[in-house]
Amino acid sequence: MLKIENLTKVYAGAATPSVDNISFEVHGGEIFGFIGPNGAGKSTTIKCISGIISMTEGDIYIAGKSLRHDPIGAKKNIGYVSDDHALYEGLTGAEYINFIADVFGVSSAEREQRLARLSEMFSLTDSISKQISTYSHGMKQKLNIIGALIHEPKVWILDEPMTGLDPRSAYNLKQLMREHADKGNCVFFSSHVLEVVEKVCDRIGIIDGGHLITVCTMDELKQRNVDKSLEELFLKLTDDEFSDKFYSGEVGVRDAIKTEEKAAEDEASNIDNNENISQSESANEEKYSKNQEKSAYSDNLNDDKSGEE
Predict the structure, then answer these.
(1) What is the pTM of this model?
(2) Which among 100, 121, 162, 289 counts the fewest CB atoms within 10 Å?
(3) Whether the predicted pLDDT of 226 surpasses 60
(4) What value does the mean pLDDT of the chain take?
(5) Which is it for strands 31-35 and 203-208: parallel, antiparallel or unpaired?
(6) How far apart, in whole angstroms, are the C-alpha atoms of residue 32 and residue 26?
(7) 276 vs 270: CA distance, rounded Å
């Protein structure tokens, strides 16, 4: 559904690429989490995928359409929720959604039905006819989300989409993400909130320093017993010392996983050793107690015999 091939982006005047020859694929039916520290190349990758900026090398395929060779055909299949919700604030909410629907060729019946449902989900029904300039930060974010979904895109891209959302709207957004993926579409989700990424995503990709460090499923993390936290693995893989060794080829992602597994094994071994020591101490105490009882009993017998004599 979304395929990135050897994507490289070098900004003018930059000595090194912001994104350096990354390749991965996001399949229909899945929510893909894309995470990394600040300056890692997340936003650059997302802007390349959405066609906001051009790529230096490589290509991106959206629903089979090459973004390099058929940009219009590719972009027709994208819905993009940006982290800064740039909107036409002179329009009303309804006018803005109708404008987006016109661009993507959504029929009147479909847009009305979708707008009514999404407006209700995000509590915008009473405000949709008001000018966007009167909206709060959270209301603008909700409108941004509705605009990205009004044409039912095959590839839904979300960059920090929960910023400014109230708890109910954040919950509804997560439900919509799952629902959209279950229809056979794909959801490309970038966030710094790793707890949410861990809960909603089927697979994750970690980028750091412009390099794709790893792509794996959440089930794979669970099988390796390192998902106690995604956060711990993320911190390990993006640690400066590990990153230097990774880029130089000294270590790979597997080494980080093995380190976490070894730590878990050592912890389990320490627990077993402590339990064995505790059991041994208990046994010794019990043996000592019995010996004391026998000694006391023997002394009493001797005292009784002496008294009889």
Answers:
(1) 0.77
(2) 289
(3) no
(4) 84
(5) parallel
(6) 7
(7) 10
User: Interior CA angle at 191 toward 243 and 234, to 5°?
Assistant: 30
Helix/strand/coil (H/E/C) assignment for every residue in the chain = CEEEEEEEECCCCCCCCCEEEEEEEECCCCEEEEECCCCCCHHHHHHHHCCCCCCCEEEEEECCEECCCCHHHHHCCEEEECCCCCCCCCCEHHHHHHHHHHHCCCCHHHHHHHHHHHHHHCCCCCCCCCEHHHCCHHHHHHHHHHHHHCCCCCEEEEECCCCCCCHHHHHHHHHHHHHHHHCCCEEEEECCCHHHHHHHCCEEEEEECCEEEEEEEHHHHHHCCCHHHHHHHHHHHCCHHHHHHHHHCCCCHHHHHHHHHHHHHHHHHHHHHHHHHHHHHHHHHHHHHHHHHHHHHHHHHHHHHHHHC
Contact between 155 and 75 under an 8 Å Cβ cutoff? The reply is no
Instruction: Return the higher-pLDDT residue of 244 and 223.
Output: 223
